Amino acid sequence: MRGILKLAYKLLVNDKAKFTALLVGNTFAVFGMMFATSMFVGVLYHSFATVTNIGASLWIMDPAVQTVAYTIGMPTYVLDAVRSMPGVKYAVPLYSSGALVKLADGTFQYVSVLGLDDTSLFGRPELMEGNIKDIYAENGFIVVHDADFVKFGSPHLGTEFQLNDHRGVVVGIAKVAASGLFGIPTLYTTYNRAIQYIPNPRYTTSYVLVEPKSASDVQAIKQQVRALGYLAVTKGEFMQRIKDFYVYQTGMGTNILIMTVISFIVGLSISGQTFYTFILENLERFGALKAIGTRSRELVGMVLFQATFTSLTGYGLGVGICTLLIWIAKWRLPDYFAMITYFNLGLSLAMVLVIAAVSAYFGARRVLRIEPFDIFRG
Amino acid sequence: MPGVAIKADGVTKSFGVGDARTLALRGVALEANFGEMVYIVGPSGSGKTTLLSVLSGILRPDSGTVSVEGVDVWKLSADQLADFRLQKIGFVFQDYHLFPRLTTAENVAIPLILRKKDWGESLKQAIECLDIVGLKARAGLPPVKLSGGEQQRVAIARAIVSQPDILIMDEPTASLDGDTGHTVVGFVHRNLLNENRCIVVVTHDNRIFEFASRILKMEDGRLLQKGDA
User: How far is CA B43 from the centre of its chain?
Assistant: First the structure.
């Protein structure tokens, strides 16, 4: 079979015009699908950055909260009630909000502020510079060194700024696993300083972060929180809730799906049609091979190999071009969201194999139908 | 390998159904022996190509038997028949059916590659075969760079590269001018016909009749005349 496949390979690649058209079709399809889905994955990944970075096991919130960025304050008694629930190891408040900061050079910058529990500093980021205890110092804030760090004027320890007429001082520079979705710098401070510096409605607790005593306590805690009129979700469930919000309630999911389907259809049309034309042009030769003594399954093997080879080569090129473009974009735009994951790679591979299968099916059907007698008849 | 190479008996074949049904072969019986170059001649539509296809295991007859080297070919399964053709029969098609994207040597090597021979070894044998037909120097060129006569010789080289016992040639001079056709068929007669091989040629080119051992005339699906040339 190896020699026959080599024959199929030579027949394919030596027809440079057709082979190029097939590669262009497959490459475009893969590139389009990869690019659309990698943008989507990137957006989703950044949309739950706070959940990833804080790392709490259980999040308690108002049931109307859909995404971590838009919070609804809860009264203080919720924290007390949760702390008194059986199965709760500890529970701490988290403040999350946006604020307008006046930088040292006089410009204004919108920032995301996270207020950590004053006692435990649960969810604190890993510091690159500074000492975490300095967060308790007067006006102490920690700045996250992510893609949006430069928007805060690339501060250093001691850099001052104003937040709602309050003085702020950078006492630490931290790194986090993921930066936020909205392209704004992130500040960490204590919970009490945050609610003191930022104007707030009546209720200020954005989330209550809970560590259960054991995994088996989670369900019981959820039920008790529900009885209070609030919602408790695990870290994974909260991420899924945020994903669902962006996928189903923002139109983003539909748009990405449409883009992916269009890429697939265009790729399928170009590749499928070109491959079918390639088969038609070589039909008499396939017939001659059949007359000489090639078995039907060997001919099907040749067609299948040709379709798979072009599809996988196109897949490699599409992935390569997509990766290169994303790399260039991230080099120029540090907070560029696109991310290539196994999901993108797997989805595009599955789609391109569907293209190969469809092309091969129609090609093989035609090849199997040709009668060697037709070759004699001319 | 003296004796009967191909034997057909009571072969009938029709195309179409109902009023459109046409009888292409009407009870044809023939024998072709090893060491013979048998011509099947006749006007267009007489059933020559249909008979050739039935004899070579390509077109199933409606009735009758065809045995090649004593094997009833139409009792073989599709895969067995494909293998049988590959092992025993070499084909020279009217329009050559060479692969334009392969080199001349690769075209010739195809039957060997289909027999699962090593690619390099197949090419080596193909070049030796091209040497026999006087085209060794053209081995690396694609067939489109060759003249009609040269392409025909490449097709012949492809047909004989695996040393088949039976050589089937369909209108071998149809695409060639008179002199070239005469030269090519003369070459086949001189160099490829031997006591271990039977060559069956379908033609209506009387300029190459001189090379025939026997000429069988067909008309309206019947074999009219049998005899030595």
Answer: 19
C-beta separation of A30 from A319 below 8 A: yes
**How are beta strands B214-219 and B222-225 bridged, if at all?**
antiparallel
Instruction: Compute CA distances B124 → B118, B127, B136, B145, whole Å.
Output: 10, 5, 11, 21
A279 touches chain B (CB under 8 A): no
Amino acid (1-letter code) at residue A124 = R
| Two tokens, residue A237 | 């469930």
The chain-wide mean pLDDT, for chain A, equals 90
Q: How do residues B11-38 score in pLDDT, each as one tens digit?
A: 999 998 888 888 899 999 999 999 999 9
- Could you give phi then psi for residue B220, rounded to 5 degrees? 55, 40
In the structure encoding, which two tokens stand for residue A327, read together?
A: 């790399």
Strand partners, A112: A98, A186
pTM of the model: 0.78
CA–CA gap between residue A121 and residue B176 (Å, rounded): 93
The residue segments making up the domain with residue B184 are: 4-225
Residue A54 has pLDDT above 70, yes or no: yes
> Is the CB of residue A284 less than 8 Å away from at least one CB of chain B?
yes
State the Cα angle at B91 between B118 and B190, rounded to 5°: 100
Q: Is A315 exposed, middle or buried (0-12, 13-18, 19+ CB in 10 A)?
A: buried
Q: Do residues B200 and B168 lie in contact, with contact meaning Cβ atoms separated by under 8 Å?
A: yes
Which of A292, A294, A371 best tests the B interface by mutation, with the highest count of B CBs <10 A?
A292
Count of domains in chain B?
1
At B68, which CATH number?
3.40.50.300
The C-alpha atoms of residue A100 and residue A78 are separated, in whole angstroms, by 29
Token pair for A304? 């299948």
- Cβ of B58 within 8 Å of Cβ of A291? The answer is yes
User: How many helices (H) and strands (E) would you count in chain B?
Assistant: 6, 10
- What pLDDT band is residue B74 in, cutting at 50, 70 and 90? very high
Digit-coded pLDDT (tens) for A93-127: 999 999 999 998 899 999 999 999 999 999 999 99
Q: How big is the CA angle at A161 (ends A156 and A162), to the nearest 5 degrees?
A: 165
What span, in angstroms and rounded, lies between the C-alpha atoms of A190 and A194?
A: 6
- Does B95 contact A378 at a Cβ distance shorter than 8 Å? yes
* Chain A residues in contact with B114 (beta carbon < 8 A): 3-4, 289, 292-294, 298
Strand (E) positions, B55-193? 63-68, 71-72, 89-92, 166-170
Q: Helix crossing, B178-191 with B148-160: angle to 10°?
A: 20
Q: In this complex, which of A10, A284, A295 lies closest to B101 when CB atoms are compared? A: A10
**Nearest in space to A23 (alpha carbons), one of A32, A34, A13:** A13
CB contact under 8 A, A292 and B110: yes
Instruction: Indicate the burial class of B175 (C-beta count within 10 angstroms; 0-12, 13-18, 19 or more).
Output: middle
By DSSP bridging, strand A160-163 and strand A88-102 are antiparallel
Domain boundaries, chain A: 2-46+251-377, 75-229
CB–CB of B91 and A14 under 8 A? no
Q: What is the bridge-based pairing of β-strands A231-234 and A58-61?
A: antiparallel
Two tokens at B44? 């267009």
> Are A231 and A72 contacting, i.e. CB atoms less than 8 angstroms apart?
no
